[in-house]
């Protein structure tokens, strides 16, 4: 138990450290590209354990709380609210606020962009070394008392369609099944070279935390690996898989927002830490795709139009570009406060979900009673 917890903590710190560092490095490089001096690049928060300055005058820090990080461009303070002392310290031509709205937007968008690039790099490295896993529509396992078991499916069967419609991928099969709970239909199956139409009633289930019903078939599919890909092919495959993960993440969020899935399914930092430890026990090759998925999630979350996040700042810059002048400081301050409250509420809600999934509240209830 202690060993598992320690592995989860180490894996979580490593994964989060890499993702956040790459995100902030995107901001840093974009700022340097646009001629903005960067005062601080911090990995972690709190008191600095190690600090040093580079030739450009940027102070690099490694801090004691490894849960995040930040980059501080020079002159980030709004000129309307800056003190005389802060104004006097500004380096002409090197401040963030005096750059064009497009330069400031480039600095902000570079962080999420680097998260997507990191996902591509991680997946390309994995595919070029170990090959690319490919899920086939060959049945490898059948759950007892499932719709597939009741229909008489066998291991080795190849599912090629549902209800007379040809389906050429596992993703298409899963999507068709998911939206058809309780449906009486047929499965097109190839067994020992023979084509069969197998009657089936698709099962129905809901998440433990509630939500609308979704279809269940109760089969596992065979996973094959290709030989290691040439680097150009690996990069292309990494781009395609990153795009696929992005679409699936957006789809999942949309289903939560529209009530098709329960918000209780939203995991937080504790769940990520638990999954990090579980994935890490299978080796570094298993950790890479997990990090790629988290990197995509981090990039997407930061693009949300919430003022505290990069997406909210981009909204301000878009409005500024349209109006020809910045959004009033008072409006920004109010939006920032609402954004901070929204992020805090999301963090608390996801943490509550994590603790609930771990059974903490049930344990407390049983202990008190």
Kindly report how far apart the N and C termini lie. Answer: 26 Å
Query: What structural class do helix, strand and pairing data support?
Result: alpha+beta
Instruction: Give the helix tally.
Output: 11
The average pLDDT is: 83
- Major sheet: size, sense and barrel closure? 4 strands, antiparallel
Estimated share of beta-strand residues: 15-25%
Essential attributes:
two-stranded antiparallel sheet; 369 residues; alpha+beta; four-stranded antiparallel β-sheet; 11 helices; elongated; single chain; 2 domains; Pdz3 Domain; disordered C terminus
Protein described:
The structure is a single chain. Helix content is 52%, strand content 22%. It has 369 residues and is α+β, with helices and mostly antiparallel strands. It folds into two domains: 2-34 and 99-130 and 267-368, no CATH class; 133-225, Pdz3 Domain (Roll). The strands form four sheets. Strands 5-4-6-7 form a four-stranded antiparallel β-sheet. The protein has a two-stranded antiparallel ribbon with strand order 1-2. β1 and β2 (59-73) form a beta hairpin. α1 (2-33) crosses α7 (269-280). The longest helix has 32 residues, at 2-33. It is elongated, with a radius of gyration of 25 Å. The protein starts with a helix and ends with a helix. Residues 363-369 have low confidence and may be disordered.
């Amino acid at each position: 138990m202690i060993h598992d917890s320690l592995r989860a903590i180490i894996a979580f710190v490593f994964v989060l450290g890499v993702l956040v560092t790459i995100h902030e490095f995107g901001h840093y490089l974009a700022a340097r590209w646009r001629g903005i001096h960067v005062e601080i690049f911090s990995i972690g928060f709190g008191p600095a354990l190690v600090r040093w300055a580079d030739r450009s005058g940027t102070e690099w820090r490694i801090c004691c709380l490894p849960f995040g990080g930040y980059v501080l461009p020079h002159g980030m303070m709004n000129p309307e609210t800056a003190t005389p002392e802060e104004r006097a310290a500004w380096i002409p031509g090197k401040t963030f606020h005096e750059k064009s709205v497009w330069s400031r937007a480039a600095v902000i968008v570079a962080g999420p962009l680097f998260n997507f690039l990191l996902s591509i790099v991680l997946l390309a490295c994995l595919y070029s070394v170990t090959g690319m896993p490919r899920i086939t529509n060959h049945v490898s396992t059948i759950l007892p008392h499932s719709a597939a078991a009741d229909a008489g499916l066998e291991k080795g069967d190849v599912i090629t369609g549902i209800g007379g419609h040809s389906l050429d991928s596992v993703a298409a099969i899963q999507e068709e099944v998911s939206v058809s709970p309780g449906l009486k239909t047929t499965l097109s199956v190839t067994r020992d070279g023979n084509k069969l139409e197998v009657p089936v009633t698709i099962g129905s289930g809901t998440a433990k935390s509630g939500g609308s019903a979704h279809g269940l078939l109760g089969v596992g599919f065979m996973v094959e690996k290709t030989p290691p890909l040439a680097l150009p092919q690996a990069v292309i495959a990494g781009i395609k898989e990153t795009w696929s993960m992005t679409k699936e993440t957006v789809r999942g969020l949309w289903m939560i927002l529209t009530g098709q899935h329960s918000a209780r399914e939203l995991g937080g930092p504790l769940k990520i830490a638990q999954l990090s430890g579980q994935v890490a026990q299978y080796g570094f090759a298993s950790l890479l795709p997990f990090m790629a998925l988290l990197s995509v999630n981090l990039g997407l979350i930061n693009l949300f139009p919430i003022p505290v996040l990069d997406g909210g700042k981009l909204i301000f810059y878009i409005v500024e570009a349209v109006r020809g002048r910045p959004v009033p400081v008072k409006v920004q301050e109010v939006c920032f406060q609402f954004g901070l409250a929204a992020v805090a509420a999301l963090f608390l809600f996801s943490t509550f979900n994590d603790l609930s999934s771990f059974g903490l509240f049930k344990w407390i209830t049983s202990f008190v009673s």
